[in-house]
Write a structure and sequence with these properties.
The chain has 118 residues and is of the alpha+beta class. It is built from 3 helices and 3 strands. The chain has a 3-stranded antiparallel sheet, with helices on one face. A hairpin with a 2-residue loop joins strand 2 and strand 3. It is elongated and about 95 Å long. It starts with a helix and ends with a helix.
């Protein structure tokens, strides 16, 4: 097994492993907001706003924002990290395949040069 084949197999194994994990595209953003209760401090003081974590994701042509409870945040962060690792692996596999195509084309060109009579 050549080094290229070994690397290709390693990347494909990584893809199989990643497909079993929760995957989610998007990003977590921190936003502050006013709650809307008339007796809350945020109603009178613009500096007294409520912080929150939100998942922002673009689906079906629209950006959707979902409030994240503190208990849900670690799982969402892990799913986003899994998605990013999946795409990094796909990009590495693509680069490997493109390099193999270029090498094959170069070998074909070398073969044509050698066959020409002098």
């Amino acid at each position: 097994m050549t080094e290229i084949e070994r690397r290709r197999q390693t990347l494909r194994d990584k893809l199989r492993r990643l497909c079993l994990l929760p995957l989610m595209r998007g990003s977590i953003v921190a936003r502050v907001r006013r709650c809307g209760r008339p007796r809350c401090a945020c109603a009178d003081d613009p500096q007294a706003q409520h912080p929150g974590q939100y998942l922002s994701v673009h689906l079906a042509g629209r950006t959707q924002v979902v409030h994240l409870r503190p208990a849900d945040e670690p799982a969402v962060r892990q799913a986003i990290a899994g998605y990013e690792e999946l795409w990094a692996t796909v990009n590495a596999l693509t680069a490997l395949e493109v390099a193999a195509l270029r090498r094959a084309a170069q070998e074909r060109r070398r073969g044509r040069r050698r066959r020409r009579p002098a």
